[in-house]
Design goal:
This protein is mostly beta strands. It has a single domain, classed as Beta Barrel (OB fold (Dihydrolipoamide Acetyltransferase, E2P)), CATH 2.40.50.140. Helix content is 8%, strand content 38%. It is built from two helices and nine strands. A hairpin with a 5-residue loop joins strand 8 and strand 9. The protein is globular, with a radius of gyration of 14 Å. The model has no long low-confidence stretch (mean pLDDT 96).
């Protein structure tokens, strides 16, 4: 494991956001959802795709707060342009469990 210093960590924009829209992503190679995430007034909404269909339904995701990296370059995923990376933990079975705040926080807050 490579160590990083505090200044390097501060460069990663890990922000809290609320999922406000969930759509099917039938063109994805692996089952995934298209997400629209609200990061608050100063950042706005960002799109992401997430391969979390095996653990999370559309209904369960709506209104859920997540932690996402918002300063990666945009990434083309098939016909979809992802604007942030939703974080999670991949288990031995390949299923991703979302990294989420355990209490509600203001959208856009940076992890510290």
């Amino acid at each position: 494991m490579k160590e990083i210093n505090w200044q390097e960590f501060e460069q990663v924009e890990l922000r809290a956001g609320t999922i406000v829209e969930v759509n099917d992503f039938p063109e994805a190679r692996h089952p995934a959802w298209k997400l629209l995430i609200d990061f608050g007034e100063s950042i706005g909404t960002r799109k992401s795709s997430a391969q979390i269909t095996n653990l999370y339904s559309k209904e369960e995701l709506l209104g859920k707060q997540v932690i996402a990296v918002i300063n990666f370059p945009r990434k083309q995923i098939g016909p979809f342009m992802s604007e942030c990376l939703v974080t999670g933990f991949t288990g031995e079975d390949g299923a991703v469990v979302l990294a989420v705040p355990d209490k509600q926080v203001t959208n856009g807050l940076k992890i510290s």
